Amino acid sequence: MPTDSATAATEVFEAHRPVLHGVAYRMLGRVADAEDVVQDAWLRWSSDDRREVREPRAYLVRITTRLAIDRLRQVQSRRESYIGPWLPEPLATDVGGTVPDTAERAVFTESVTLAVLTVMESLSPLERAVFVLREAFGYPYAEIAGVLDRSEAAVRQLAGRARRHVEEGRPRFAVDPQRQRDLTERFLAAAAGDDLEGLLTLLAADARLVGDSGGKAKAPLRIIESAGKVARFLLGVAPSTQSGTEFTLLELNGGIALLAHVGGTPDTVIQLDVEDGRIQTVYIVRNPDKLRALAAS
Q1: Which CATH class is domain 4-169?
Q2: Which of 198, 202, 189, 220 is nearest to 283 (CA)?
Q3: What is the mean pLDDT of residues 244-258?
């Protein structure tokens, strides 16, 4: 039977689990990897002497961040041999009470978008950790320095490099959620209706399509570029997936996305990166390993 101390330790950890998972997912881009890191953090927390821990959240974030850095160094070598483009695993966005303020929620969810997470793939593990803790969770530089065992000056340098790199690759303007929903619905109607002209009106001239299958499903093994090529590819594959396919709209990674079910099983996630009212990037995730967590969606 658990002791009062063990019960209290469990309650404290569970209260901070959403934040820990948020840190780990942003660091790793995969739900399973994030869950493994959080579980490892729990094992550390449950076995450590907690009598001198004055700030459990700071302590747990430090453990989780360091474990995530170690895991990221391991998985980066595996991603080098990944078949085709690599995209983060889609995550159903539910910040709950973690971020109550609307402005803070916007910053919190922006750090989990496919566009930002994809750009973050080119950061070093330390740069990524600093960016996540600073930009997504608002940690002061001094606290991040303590988490990483680095000087505050070094952390500021890491933050500056990471921020400049992400700014270069992220969308320039935030998109109104209703506008994104409307464009997504029009995109689906045009693709399903074999409407080439309709698609071309929605796509930016230099639009790109990035497909992630991991070699386990049909998807382009290279990034497709230009509106014409993207539109023709979409129309070429759409007819083969219409029969028995059901599409639903839901919020993934802080934005509206399309989830296609085939025979009740998640088959494809499509999310659009929109700039200046046009679709700049079409993200398609078809790797079944990255869709399992959406089975209940």
Answers
A1: mainly alpha
A2: 220
A3: 90
